[in-house]
Automatic annotation (TrEMBL), chain B:
Protein name in the entry: Hydrogenase iron-sulfur subunit
Residue ranges annotated for the F420-non-reducing hydrogenase iron-sulfur subunit D domain, each copy included: 13-135
UniProt keyword Iron-sulfur present: yes
Coiled coil: none
GO molecular function: iron-sulfur cluster binding; metal ion binding; oxidoreductase activity
Keywords from the UniProt entry: Iron, Iron-sulfur, Metal-binding, Oxidoreductase
Xref: InterPro entries: MvhD/FlpD
């Protein structure tokens, strides 16, 4: 982390960049927030640890409109989102100085809480330099510990890899954290009967409180005005009405980002109700891979995405019924 | 004297038809006096590519029991390639509907040219039969619209 | 003081639910939220904080106000009936109870919100003391005692027993209704007092307990409003509605029409969030055009505008839900601290 701070200060001092977009330490051991650093003394609060899960690509949309370059710290998975945003002309590559930061898997405080750990005073093992396999958590109710792996975000278990897709320089080592099949959950649902599928999603989505966090955090959801925010559109944008509305919102949201979604997992990370929103995105990704060839959004700068492209030999929609 | 109410299930079916081929096909069916079910309500769109996935979901939400989209045959699109894009979109959407547990068969895509009045009529017959056998759509319906 | 063994709680719930509606924390797909009780509901009263606050019981996220149906040349307006059924909310916490008091200040003053008032009339609150407060709790800052909730019935979950003490007339009535399941316990006071002391000593150790609200009151409106600090604070905000929707005191709502087809319109109201771009949208446009203004609104409302209009009562209760749930880890505590830090530097 110190190397990163030094380099950032250096680039700030020589005028290469006008500001640094990174994370500021929170007031609890696990709640750093995205922040801009413009002066050398600001860096006292700079932090980069296991809890810096936020994908800063989205903030670059706004930062691209500012005067001068912004140094942005991107984890390997964040660079996919950034590249996708370049493709869509939502960020300006020339306004960004990308430092690819190493990542050894990001932590999910909700997972730690779900283990019954509460009253947290401090957490050790979450620093980026730590090689620790376990987290030691000091709480009001005694010292607890858990495996680093068990506290990782779901997305890190299906990590896309250690490579940064786009960067100006790389600081820090990344670690392979993948230990699960990305489509395993999707396949499990596909194997269910229609009744079971319906019941599954009914239960999962009945939790939705329409806070729109999934949409607002999503780097692919970069429309200036979302269709769901239109008051002419007769949707229950803010009301959870326990009818088809929630499902429609999530299907359409996933559809709008289909072919552009890099599977960065931010939607599932931020959902206050722990809805596994990636199940929608991954279904589209799986279908695209199977029907139109393997595709990873954000892996290249090829402008045509699967849904803005076609092949005369494409499968007919009837295939859905045929494969059963 | 009272009129006996017909309680038999009649499905509500929405058909999105492209202006250039399928809508003309429906016209031909009509002018050739080929019948198709009155349960089918046609919505004319400029191109099958105009059909936003939201239209389909909205139709279901508002009480449709089946939705069919008809466009020009692949290769014959008035705008060259609209139906190719539509084909991908609908494939993914139908797959998603299947994934969330909507019965297969409530949605369909058929390519109908302006010369295929008979195909239009036959397709609609088939689709109405299929939906009648599936019964009322309850999984995608908005309960507020029921009254 | 009464008590009931934990294992008999199901019987208690059955008994209450036989006469009235019963809402309590229920676990669904890994998340605990207040929901109506049913035989197969997975009741979870050990989890300290439900994701959403229990304000839904009195002020639901969405509710229909009336329905218009066209009948030939007439329009029939069918108003939604007010709540007539008595109900019990079991398992609220001291902070949530204060949250309801805050809502009272908004909805039970002129003009009276009849929907809310009817629910308040028919609702009885059984609140649990917080056995194990968490690091995100800061109710003490607002003078709330987590060890002794001020509800209709206060309850303490200690070991294998639930201790039960009616505090109001409604609470007495509920106690009488379930009296045959409760046993009088003469030694209970001592056990409960011990528990209260234990809770209070834990609360003292919580990191946010000694947060200072100095400088936040109804008289600092312009000074705080114009503070340049807001230009920095709002930046990480995503403009989602998480903080407002999990909050026990956020009371803003929007009224909208839903076209039900067949010549009908349903007018409903639903919670609104000051973080949303269409918040207080009017014909002329929007009052608060930037996210900075919307972000500022939330904290100014809780810490300045509300106390200015309600004898100094803050409309934050320190439940810490926003602290836990904000996607980017922003929250009211960070805002208060940022101002305090700036004050120190000046």
């Amino acid at each position: 982390m110190q190397e990163l701070i030094n380099r950032a200060k250096e680039l700030l001092a020589d005028g290469t960049v006008a500001r640094v977009l990174g994370w500021k330490a929170g007031d609890l051991p696990y709640n750093p927030e995205p922040a801009y650093f413009e002066k050398e003394e600001d860096f006292a609060d700079f932090v980069y640890n296991g809890f810096c899960g936020a994908n800063l690509s989205k903030y670059m949309i706004e930062a691209s409109k500012l005067e001068g370059k912004t140094l942005v710290c991107l984890k390997p998975c964040d660079t996919y989102s950034f590249q996708e945003l370049i493709k869509e002309h939502r960020v300006d590559r020339d306004k960004a100085y990308i430092i690819g930061v190493g990542c050894k898997g990001k932590l999910d405080i909700e997972k730690i809480r779900a283990m019954g750990i509460k009253g947290i005073k401090s957490i050790s093992g979450a620093e980026i330099e730590d090689e620790a396999e376990t987290l030691t958590i000091d709480t009001i109710y005694g010292e607890k510990s858990c495996a680093y792996k068990d506290a990782m975000l779901e997305r890190c278990h299906v990590c896309k890899g250690k490579d940064h897709m786009i960067f100006d320089e790389i600081i820090g080592e990344s670690k392979e954290t993948k230990d699960a099949d990305r489509f395993a959950e999707v396949e499990k649902i596909e194997a269910m009967s229609p009744e079971e599928k319906f019941a599954f999603f009914q239960k999962e989505l009945s939790k939705c409180i329409r806070c729109n966090a999934c949409r607002n955090v999503c780097p692919a959801c970069s429309c200036r005005k979302c269709v769901f925010d239109s008051n002419k559109f007769d949707s229950s944008q803010k009301a959870n009405v326990d009818s088809f509305e929630e499902k429609m919102f999530h299907i359409i949201r996933a559809f709008h980002v289909a072919g552009r979604c890099t599977d960065c997992g931010e939607c599932s990370r931020v959902c206050p109700q722990g809805i596994r929103l990636h199940l929608f995105n991954r279904k589209f990704i799986k279908d695209i891979n199977e029907l139109y060839g393997e595709y990873q959004a954000g892996a290249d700068l090829e402008p045509r995405t699967p849904l803005t492209n076609y092949d005369v030999e494409d499968a007919e929609p009837g295939i859905v019924a045929e494969r059963g | 004297m009272s009129i006996e109410k017909n309680e038999e299930f009649r499905p509500k079916i929405v058909a999105f038809c492209c202006n250039w081929c399928s809508y003309a096909g429906a016209d031909l069916a009509g002018s050739s006096r080929m019948s198709y079910s009155a349960d089918v309500k046609i919505i004319r769109v400029p191109c099958s590519c105009r059909v936003n996935p939201m239209f389909i979901l909205r139709a279901f939400e508002r009480g449709a029991d089946g939705v069919i989209m008809c466009g020009c045959h692949p290769g014959d699109c008035h705008y060259t390639s609209g139906n190719y894009y539509a084909r991908r979109r609908m494939t993914l959407l139908f797959s998603m509907l299947d994934y969330i547990g909507v019965e297969n068969g409530r949605t369909r895509v058929e390519w109908v040219s302006a010369a295929e009045g008979a195909k239009f009529s036959q397709t609609m017959h088939e689709f109405v039969d299929k939906i009648t056998s599936l019964g009322k759509n309850v999984r995608l319906e908005d309960l507020r619209c029921r009254n | 003081m009464y008590k009931i063994a934990k294992e008999n709680l199901t019987a208690l719930f059955q008994k209450i639910a036989a006469e009235q509606e019963l809402y309590l924390p229920v676990r669904n797909e890994g998340q605990v939220n207040f929901a109506a009780w049913s035989e197969d509901a997975q009741v979870d009263i050990d989890t300290l904080k439900t994701v959403k606050s229990p304000k839904d019981a009195f002020f639901p996220q969405s509710e229909t106000l009336y329905t218009c149906v066209r009948d030939g040349k007439k329009i029939n307006i069918e108003p939604e009936a007010l709540k007539e059924q008595d109900f019990v909310v079991f398992g609220m916490r001291a902070c949530d109870v204060r949250g309801v008091e805050v809502l009272d200040k908004v909805f039970l003053v002129d003009p009276l919100d009849t929907f809310y008032a009817a629910r308040r009339d028919h609702g009885t609150i059984v609140a649990l003391a917080c056995h194990e407060p968490e690091e995100t709790c800061f109710c003490k800052v607002f003078g709330i005692d987590a060890a002794e909730p001020a509800a209709d019935v206060a309850a303490w979950l200690i070991g294998e027993d639930l201790y039960w003490k009616a505090l109001t007339e409604k609470g007495e009535a509920l106690t009488n209704a379930v009296a045959d399941l409760l046993t009088e316990d003469a030694g209970a006071d001592e056990t409960v007092n011990k528990e209260k002391d234990a809770i209070r000593s834990i609360v003292e150790q919580l990191p946010y307990t000694h947060l200072s609200l100095e400088g936040w009151n109804g008289d600092v409106l312009m000074e705080k409003f114009e503070d340049p600090l807001w230009d920095e604070l709002y930046k990480p905000c995503l403009a989602c509605g998480t903080c407002t929707f999990v909050c026990p005191t956020c009371q803003c709502y929007d009224i909208k029409d839903y076209d039900t087809g067949k010549n009908g319109v349903q007018r409903y109201r639903c919670w609104d969030s000051c973080m949303y771009s269409d918040f207080t949208m009017m014909a002329h446009g929007n009052n608060r055009k930037s996210q900075k203004e919307r972000f500022r609104q939330r904290f100014m409302h809780k810490l300045v505008y509300f106390p200015a209009n309600n004898d100094g009562m803050y409309s934050c209760v320190g439940c810490g839900r926003c602290v836990e749930k904000c996607p980017e880890s922003l929250n009211i505590v960070k805002v208060i601290k940022a101002f305090a830090k700036q004050g120190g530097e000046k």
